[in-house]
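Q: Please design a sequence for this.
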């Protein structure tokens, strides 16, 4: 009877280990899904078509940052836009590779205030893919977006008058020269 009891305990402990390992691997995609659904941490949404303009307006400010390991200049062409909620908008950033080698970067982004993140929807964005710039190359990079009219129905977010879209470019490690 002792062997059966030990076997059950070992089986339960093994199941817990397997379950916890599975949760560990699932944590990142589940957290990403949670952020996209709730807008937590200023996570934006991805959409296909803007729903159409309302009479309400909001100011969208654009921020840019570059990680110290990336030899690029990166900035928005305009610091802000006063836009109609629900209307399709386009903004441009410029990036320039200041190095003598091709460099690939990837952009992370967020929206503040965080409660507006789930209503800020990107249709197209340079941040969806990695960007490779040749030595000295300068490019214009668009972001097409809208602010979802559902923000007007949210008691926590409908008073938002100013939204900041912030990007930070980082180097892609796979492009580091071999030692």
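A: Design:
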């Amino acid at each position: 009877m002792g062997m059966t009891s030990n076997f059950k305990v070992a089986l339960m402990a093994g199941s817990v280990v397997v379950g916890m390992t599975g949760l560990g691997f699932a944590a990142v995609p589940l957290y990403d899904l949670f952020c996209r659904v709730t807008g937590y941490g200023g996570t934006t949404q991805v959409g296909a078509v803007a729903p159409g303009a309302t009479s309400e307006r909001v100011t969208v400010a654009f921020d840019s940052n570059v990680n110290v390991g990336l030899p690029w200049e990166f900035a928005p062409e305009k610091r802000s836009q006063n836009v109609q909620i629900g209307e399709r908008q386009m903004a441009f950033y410029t990036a320039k590779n200041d190095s003598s080698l091709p460099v690939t970067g990837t952009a992370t982004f967020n929206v503040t205030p965080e409660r507006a993140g789930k209503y800020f929807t990107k249709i197209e964005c340079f941040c969806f893919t990695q960007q490779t710039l040749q030595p000295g190359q300068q490019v214009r990079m668009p972001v097409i977006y809208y602010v979802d009219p559902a923000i007007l129905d949210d008691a926590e977010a409908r008073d938002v008058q100013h939204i900041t879209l912030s990007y930070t470019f980082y180097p892609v490690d796979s492009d580091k020269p071999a030692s």
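Q: Thanks. Anything notable?
A: Residues 27-34, 36-42, 175-179 have pLDDT under 50 and may be disordered. The radius of gyration is 22 Å.
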